[in-house]
């Protein structure tokens, strides 16, 4: 590979999050804040992935339980989830996660296609994977997370 083509490689920054035992990544450009969700109001007769709505600094935020969205089951302990705040199509969302990690700068050409054995629910919302020191980082696509069976998840 020539030095010129190495310098042309685009990189993007991703924030890592842990959901259950798995490490996931979100493009940093999609994330506007990280917060502890409080005073969440359940939405009657909503999808299981919809944890509720909350007021965050005057904005109504739809909270999406990422454990349920990804088929990872409910939280076993009494720890409170964290939320990653995103805006999409004029709506505010909080993706409920277990833990926020670090910011990584990854080259676009280092992200691999989803492996054939990746859980179909994960593959449905993934842009690809990145290998990190014996762990697999699944890169999430926000627009795909917010769609389920062709319907938007907004409350």
Describe this structure in words.
With about 160 residues, the chain is mainly beta. Helix content is about 10%, strand content about 50%. The chain contains 4 helices and 12 strands, in the order αβββββαβββαββαββ. The protein has helices spanning about 5, 65-70, 120-125, 140-145, and strands at about 10-20, 20-25, 30-35, 50-55, 60-65, 80-90, 90-95, 100-105, 125-130, 135-140, 145-150, 150. A hairpin with a 2-residue loop joins strand 9 (about 125-130) and strand 10 (about 135-140). The N and C termini lie far apart (about 50 Å).
Strand order of the largest sheet: 8-1-2-10-9
Helicity range = 10-25%
Judged by helices, strands and strand pairing, the structural class is mainly beta
What is the residue-mean pLDDT, rounded to a whole number? 89
Strand content bin: over 45%
């Amino acid at each position: 590979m020539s030095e010129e083509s190495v310098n042309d490689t685009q990189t993007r920054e991703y924030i890592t999050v842990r959901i259950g035992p798995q490490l996931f990544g979100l493009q940093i450009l999609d994330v506007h804040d990280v917060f502890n969700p409080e005073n969440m109001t359940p939405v009657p007769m909503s999808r299981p992935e919809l944890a509720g709505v909350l007021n965050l600094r005057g904005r109504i935020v739809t909270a999406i339980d990422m454990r349920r969205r990804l088929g990872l089951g409910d939280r076993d302990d009494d720890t409170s989830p964290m939320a990653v705040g995103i805006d999409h199509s004029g709506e505010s969302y909080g993706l409920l996660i277990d833990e926020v990690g670090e910011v990584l700068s990854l080259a676009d050409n280092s992200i691999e296609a989803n492996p054939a054995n990746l859980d179909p629910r994960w593959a449905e919302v993934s842009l690809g994977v990145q290998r990190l020191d014996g762990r697999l980082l699944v890169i999430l696509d926000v627009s795909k997370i917010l769609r389920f069976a062709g319907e938007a998840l907004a409350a």
